[in-house]
Design goal:
The protein has a domain of 158 residues: Ribbon (Umud Fragment, subunit A), CATH 2.10.109.10. The protein is 26% helix and 22% strand. It is built from three helices and twelve strands; from the N terminus they run αββαβαβββββββββ. The strands form two sheets. Strands 1, 2, 3, 4, 9, 10, 11 and 12 form an eight-stranded antiparallel sheet that branches. A hairpin with a 6-residue loop joins β5 and β6. It is elongated.
Length: 260
């Protein structure tokens, strides 16, 4: 009896075992068929996010210290740059903006792309979906003046002027010396702060780094065809949030520097 029962139980369990194996195999085949579709959807979503919504950029230099951290030899801030705001309005004075450097700003730029045609094509495809950094010189500065405004430095306190009015810039903590009475824009030994006046062409923007003593910005490009300014078409987006490192995580403020 015992032997017969055992044999009977094994015979009854066999179909269930075969059925489970068949279901498992069917699920695996189904997953493998769906995997390319899932990857394609992920790549399309990544492309859409990178192109139209927001992306993460790395701070490559110390030109925006202390607002953005990117000193030599340290881990630069990673910031979220949103691309929606400037589809409905232009950058405003005080905004921290990421943009593509015009030719005169990018002469020292070295392409990261391979000389091999096939590899370069793969790199370009990866860049479209955000898997490979774009092959361009992306810079981050603060908007100081917009089209039609005249910018210069300095007043008697060493402040930047836009249309004759001094700017309120609490974020500037590193700048060239300006000593009333001995080192100004009129004395024999001029302050390195001095520049202009420059009238910004319509549709363009005058950009300056928060670290005024270490920022190769619009002040150093006034001799080019754009007078050192940046066209709206070169603007990538607005820097809004520091995501890494965790110790510096937080929002990136836009200041009403012109008191409008």
């Amino acid at each position: 009896m015992s032997s017969e029962s055992e044999t009977s139980g094994e015979s009854a369990a066999a179909p269930d075992s075969d059925g489970s194996a068949a279901k498992s195999e069917k699920k695996n085949r189904s997953f493998l068929r769906e995997l390319p579709i899932l990857i394609l959807v992920a790549l399309v979503l990544s492309f859409f996010l990178k192109t139209f919504i927001a992306w993460v950029y790395v701070i490559p230099s110390e030109s925006m210290e202390p607002t953005l951290h990117g000193c030599e030899g340290c881990t630069g801030d990673r910031m979220v740059v949103e691309k929606i705001s400037y589809r409905f309005g232009d950058p405003q004075p005080g905004d921290v903006v990421v943009f593509r450097g015009p030719e005169s700003w990018s002469r020292d730029f070295v392409s990261t792309r391979s000389s091999n045609t096939v590899i370069r094509g793969v790199q370009e495809l990866g860049s479209l979906v955000g898997l490979v950094p774009p092959d361009e010189k992306a810079l981050v500065k603060r908007v100081i003046a917009t089209g039609g405004q005249t910018v210069e430095c300095c007043d008697d306190q060493g402040r930047v002027l836009v249309d004759g009015k001094p700017l309120d810039e609490p974020y500037v903590v590193m700048d060239f010396p300006f000593v009333p009475g001995s080192q100004t824009c009129e004395t024999a030994v001029k302050s390195a702060r001095c520049f202009g006046p420059v009238t910004v062409p319509e549709g363009n923007f005058w950009m300056m780094g928060d670290n005024r003593s270490s920022s190769a910005d619009s002040r150093y490009r006034v001799g080019d065809e754009l007078q050192g300014t940046i066209p709206l078409d070169n603007v990538i987006g607005k820097a809004v949030f520091i995501v890494l490192p965790p110790s510096r995580m937080g929002t990136i403020s836009s200041h009403d520097i012109q008191g409008t």
